[in-house]
Amino acid sequence: MDFAYSDKTNDLRARVADFFEAHILPRNKQFQQEVDQGIFPLSFLGDLKALAKSEGLWNLFLPHLREDEPGTRLTNMEYAPLAEIMGRLPWASEVFNCSAPDTGNMELLHMFGTDSQKERWLKPLLNGEIRSCFAMTEPDVASSDATNVTTMIRRDGDEYVINGRKWFITGAGNPSCKIALVMGKTDINADRHRQQSVVLVPMNTPGMKVTRNIAVMNHHSYETHCEIVFEECRIPVDQILGEEGGGFAMAQARLGPGRIHHCMRSIGQAELALEMMTERALERKTFGKYLHEQGSIQEKIAHSRCEIEQARLLVLKAAWMIDHSDAKTARNEIAMIKVVVPNMQQRVIDRAMQVFGAMGLSPDTPLPDLWTMARSLRIADGPDEVHLRSIARGQIKAAQQGDRKTILYFTPPDRSQEVSIRDDQK
Ligand SMILES: Cc1cc2nc3c(=O)[nH]c(=O)nc-3n(C[C@H](O)[C@H](O)[C@H](O)COP(=O)(O)OP(=O)(O)OC[C@H]3O[C@@H](n4cnc5c(N)ncnc54)[C@H](O)[C@@H]3O)c2cc1C
Asked: pTM of the predicted model, to two decimals?
């Protein structure tokens, strides 16, 4: 495995970083003001997207685009360092048409969509004209186990009729979001993993209602995380994605590269927090010394540096494995980064908050927002425990199937002639 960035990657890194500094970072204050005023979507986003597209910095995430589809066809390895740069601001990836949940949805439509579904939904998504959401999680069942979903997708002649309730659906409150990929059950008598299907539901379909935007840690995010109710919501049967019963497998497929993208952006956020922590330590003085001269602060900086490097290498390994085989082969590595990266990100940002003192908890720095995102990622896309479970299962299965040779390293005492080591027992 070679994780060195190629000349092509380094060239793209420089171009994305220059674009970010020239056009995105200077707009961040305006972003905050517009979000505070409830201006939605952002007034300047369209212009920035057009500029990024004209510079060829567009759809950087999709390796398997066709020649006639707009984008760069980068590998996951090539995309990783670019996503890191975009991750430094929560809204930046949208400028390059690389933001969740659209990326995962575009991948699904690309893999499973019919020609007419692609024309109607994938094309405008690839062009950045509309946005999308993915609706799987439900308030009433433990949704980390996707087989639990209770939303029903009942066939009635040429239509499917949807009934159910979803929540935490990212992007559903965005007026640009025009399509929901909804997971529900089409056959409750089928095998556990064949009961679910994914259907394409236009956001203006009668019977579908976005009822609230849920705050995360009491914080309403710009992207929105919404509750949606479906009551006798009807769509034509040709709006099923892939085949009936294929929904569970699709949800798994969707999360493969999608998790990688989140992790790459998280590394960018951890880097930003470390840079902030270090610069603050250079400026602030307590008890006659600069913070950077205090050993405990140096440890915070050093641990953060080590942990970011470790996490990045694991993400690159997962990206390399997807590129050289597929997401299924890289399943273990994907599960590992999903645990390692958000936990690392949360620790590094937490240290930065500590070094900043009270200011680190105030809205005057991006740290509270970054921390909230890190904390959310330990639940979104599956809680830590679920990924740890699958990593442990892989390890245990390998041991069960192996020839169990670790006994060869044991040096047990000879118990055939045991005597007491106490004098009073001689
Ligand atoms: C910010 C944010 C954005 C989100 N965006 C979306 C979205 O766009 N679309 C969507 O469909 N969903 C989305 N979600 C929902 C997310 O995917 C779910 O919250 C997640 O899958 C967990 O499901 P749950 O909340 O029902 O928790 P539950 O399944 O009820 O799990 C609760 C807890 O139980 C424990 N647990 C679960 N399984 C195990 C196990 N096997 N072993 C040990 N402990 C376990 C864990 O501690 C877990 O946190 C989002 C969530 C957040 C926070």
From this structure: 0.94
Say which CATH architecture domain 131-241 belongs to.
Beta Barrel (2.40)
Superfamily of segment(s) 249-401: Butyryl-CoA Dehydrogenase, subunit A, domain 3 (1.20.140.10)
Q: How far is CA 348 from CA 8, 307, 337, in A?
A: 30, 8, 16
Distance of alpha carbon 371 from alpha carbon 269, whole angstroms: 9
Q: What's the fold here for domain 7-113?
A: Butyryl-Coa Dehydrogenase, subunit A; domain 1 (1.10.540)
Which part of the chain is CATH 1.10.540.10? 7-113
Q: Which of 151, 369, 379, 390 to mutate to test the pocket of ligand 1 (most atoms within 8 A of CB)?
A: 379
Q: Nearest CA to 240 among 170, 161, 145, 136?
A: 161
Closest among 83, 62, 108, 69 to 9, alpha carbons compared: 83
| Neighbouring-strand partners of residue 179 | 132, 202
Distance CA(408)–CA(135), nearest Å, equals 51
| Residue 304 alpha carbon to ligand 1 centre in Å | 27
pLDDT per residue as tens digits for the range 245-299: 999 998 887 777 777 889 999 999 999 999 999 999 999 999 999 999 999 999 9
Strand 285-286 with 240-241, pairing: unpaired
**339 CA from centroid of ligand 1 (Å):** 13
